[in-house]
# Entry
Amino acid sequence: MAAGGRTEAQAPRPFLKWAGGKSQLLEQYAPLFPQRYRRYFEPFVGGGAVFFHLRPPRALLSDGNAELIDCFRAVRDHVRAVVVALRLHRYDRDHFYAVRALDPETLTPAERAARTIFLNRTCFNGLYRVNSKGRFNVPFGRYVNPKIVDEENLRACSRALRRARIECAPFQAVLGEARRGDFVYFDPPYHPRSKTSFFTSYAPGGFTADDQRELARVYAALDRRGVLVMLSNSDTPLIRELYQGFRIVEVRANRAINSKAGARGAIPELVVLNYR
# Structure
């Protein structure tokens, strides 16, 4: 199945801001995507920038973050209700902390998705971070009239997501699904470039060096199966060591999430491919 097939009427963009999001890198990634593949898999979907760019006819999107997956499912299945729920929110500090304190389990799927989108749009730097109990704990952000409700884009995203299965699952689950000729894109939490660059945690426990090694094992298993695999990660000795023998391409990314202004700006990142 061709990777393209898009029309100008379909122009979804990620509806969540996500640390390490790939929107800015799509131009550099474009020549690296395979021209043909059967099904598309993205086990660390995050904001979904690559999926929304490719808009493949058949996809399985997954992530270990249950709140994120609930949000994607609600946008796909209940976008009208999500928009209605979002319109009840306002950019206000007290309202932000009241919404942050809500127990998501007491809300409907659409209300939970609206809460996630609202907090994401109005919290500091658009971060997603949880505490040891798995509760969102990013503080209120300072913006000038942030756009909380983008109905047109949410509906475009909903249309694109109707082509996808959306599952809450660990990245290893892709081994039970992907077959020869499929395309898997991995965008894991990046290996830290330094001891101080581990700025956040997306799930209790974070993503460790041992997790990176396990991911490399899964990558190699998919390669042996004849699956087309692409992976993004930071340019560190560990990542280069884990994927030696595969094609490694360097790209440049502007990363603004850093406590030190001097450390912000274009930095090298790696793309690992098992195909030409």
Notes: The chain has nine helices and seven strands.
